[in-house]
């Protein structure tokens, strides 16, 4: 077994009397994607900042790329790339100038070239324009391209897709998958369960500075309610009939709703609607519910993510 890319044990950090990280243990195998999943304020960026030597912890031990972050931060920095939550691109420079600056600053042998990166990230046409004119998705891509100049083997991505439209998000996912197939280790923070599910080999759920769960996406999803359809009926009699004909459903008599496990695909949805039709039943409301971060939190902690917003 090769050495883990990242390990942390008993990581603690407080700002004045506010505990932000309350004893975090992590182990990230080399060549995998590890996702730290949590709502705003959970402590994701603080964790990334400690692991990447940007801030020092109050307690605990951290090793990244085989080096101790406390005693050998320079060796850690040489091995990693960091794309922060807020893009580090210079707005006044063009895309090409931003990249060139990173190439000039980087003294590593065998670093990537500006042209190679512009092409890889589909930024050739935009390269002459100032970064201030870029969309959120383009800015993120440029930021990540800048991170890749020194060919880091471990990359930290702090909420790489927050605020992006679905298409840009998918582009970013493809880029991340490509990096992993090159053998890079990715430490990714996100507020989206779907993103962690799509990309991560392992997920850790962070709640107010503590890890409340860790495992593979499948292990985690087994602990939370799955995708289901919610049907709402006009009368108790309709709910009654529907509950009898739809196998595996659970009813809520107060809300007059029926909850039906489903993969959410068109085939199973059509089957469900046909079944209602055969019995001349009409639903007043019909919604497909895919589990999100709120479901994770409710299942794991008994509260939703909202309590943290305060
Ligand atoms: N420099 C700081 N000084 C004081 N409090 C901070 C500082 N940085 C972060 N915090 C607090 O620590 C908590 C976790 O923040 P952060 O790590 O940014 O969370 P996340 O990235 O998950 O949204 C928040 O309550 C935040 O207000
Ligand atoms: Mg953050």
Automatic annotation (TrEMBL):
Record bears the keyword Membrane: yes
Transmembrane segments: none
ABC transporter domain sequence ranges: 6-233
Listed GO CC annotations: plasma membrane
Listed GO MF terms: ATP binding; ATP hydrolysis activity
The name this protein goes by in its record: ABC-2 type transport system ATP-binding protein
InterPro entries xref list: AAA+_ATPase, ABC_transporter-like_ATP-bd, ABC_transporter-like_CS, ABC_transporter_ATP-binding, DrrA, P-loop_NTPase
Superkingdom of origin organism: Bacteria
Organism: Kutzneria buriramensis
Family stated for the protein in its record: Belongs to the ABC transporter superfamily. Drug exporter-1 (DrugE1) (TC 3.A.1.105) family.
Primary site of residence: membrane
């Amino acid at each position: 077994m090769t050495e883990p890319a990242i390990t942390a044990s008993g990581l603690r950090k407080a700002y004045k009397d506010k505990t932000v990280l309350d004893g975090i243990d992590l182990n990230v195998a080399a060549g995998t994607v590890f996702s730290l999943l949590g709502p705003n304020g959970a402590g994701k960026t603080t964790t990334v900042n400690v692991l990447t030597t940007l801030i020092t912890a109050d307690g605990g031990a951290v090793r990244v790329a085989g080096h101790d972050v406390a005693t050998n931060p320079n060796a850690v920095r040489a091995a990693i790339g960091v794309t922060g939550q807020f893009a580090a691109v210079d707005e006044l420079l063009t895309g090409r100038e931003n990249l060139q600056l990173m190439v000039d600053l980087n003294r590593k042998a065998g670093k990537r070239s500006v042209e190679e990166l512009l092409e890889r990230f589909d930024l050739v046409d935009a390269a002459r324009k100032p970064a201030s004119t870029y969309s959120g998705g383009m800015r993120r891509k440029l930021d990540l391209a800048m991170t890749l100049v020194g060919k880091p083997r471990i990359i930290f991505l702090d909420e790489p897709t927050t605020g992006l439209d679905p298409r840009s998000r998918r582009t970013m996912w493809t880029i991340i998958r490509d990096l992993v197939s090159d053998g890079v280790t990715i430490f990714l923070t996100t507020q989206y369960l779907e993103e962690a599910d799509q990309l991560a080999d392992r997920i850790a759920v962070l709640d107010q500075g503590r890890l409340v769960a860790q495992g593979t996406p499948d292990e985690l999803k087994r602990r939370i309610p799955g995708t289901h359809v919610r049907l709402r009926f006009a009368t108790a009699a309709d709910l009654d009939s529907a509950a009898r004909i739809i196998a595996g459903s659970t009813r809520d008599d107060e809300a007059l709703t029926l909850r039906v496990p489903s993969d959410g695909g068109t085939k199973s949805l059509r089957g469900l609607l046909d079944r209602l039709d055969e019995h001349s039943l009409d639903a007043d409301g019909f919604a497909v519910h895919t589990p999100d971060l709120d479901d994770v939190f409710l299942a794991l902690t008994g509260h939703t993510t909202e309590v943290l917003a305060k």
